[in-house]
Amino acid sequence: MKHFACMLLVALGLLAAAGRPNAGFQDPARAGAQEDSAASDSTLYTVTAASLRSSIEEGERVVYLEGGVRIDHATTTITSVRGKHYPLRRYIVLQDSVRVVDGTAVMKSDVGEYFGLTNTLVLAGRVRFADRGWKARCDRAKYDRDRRVAVLTGNLSAQDSTRTMYADTIVYDRDREIADATGRVVIIDDVEDYSLAGNHARFDRIRKLAVVDVRPILTFDLKSEEHGTVTSRIMRFDVDRKIGIAEGEVQMAKGETRATCDSATIYDDDGRAELSGDPRATNGRSSMSGKRMILWYNKNEVERIVLPETGRLAESPKPGSPWTEDSWIEGDSV
Question: Of 90, 197, 257, 287, which alpha carbon lies 20 to 30 A from 294's?
Fold first, then answer.
């Protein structure tokens, strides 16, 4: 009798987890057949543990899992120390040292919940997420197995090579390898010496392209005495080529030089910025304007400004000078 009761308890813990929500419990003698069918039915999963204890709570069967808890569902394996399984709802609560492996992705947390009906996993506590060189830390993660998309929130930071991204929320698409960040977004590259901030950013790991389209601010030469800054309506940064493109109401500052234009392309390796769309620059009493403008800069200041096409260079009078009008010069190139 004790042997039969033990078999019945194990069968209820495994088969009810794999059964559909409205299905009744299988006879223990059919346990092997039900598990074998998982190979052809991707909706089935299995739950195992060192110890299982079944009870009825508020009219619902609950299976308590103790020691070596493991869930296997297609390509995903979930393990923890303890858990509670609600077979009819296909809902599992996971506790202590939760670890999830789904293909190349590895997730860890203090606690978790698995929703078998929607193939969704929720992790909380000290959450760690890693996938093909991309690593993240946060307080909460929701992972959709069908879409292969993770939503990360709470004390969030993510790393990829030399870059670190901070944000309120990151939605990471594993198939496209795109991180979409919202809230207070900051991308910092300590090696390349720049930061990119804004309220919405998208980083494409395959194309190595970062886009900030809500209040973007690019700060470069972080380690120098005089940082350079660029603001605009939208900003793109090509990580491999180290080229930044700012568009719409562009404003630049480096040392004592200030510049405005409609569009700017920054070649960080060359220390060069090319401005177009009514570019204008000032430095003290001097000002420049033209059709196009090229700024050459070093770590501390703008070294020179070139107007390769039609341009105008002007200088306002010194304080106390008898001259009241600006002196200026115009030409095809200045």
Answer: 197
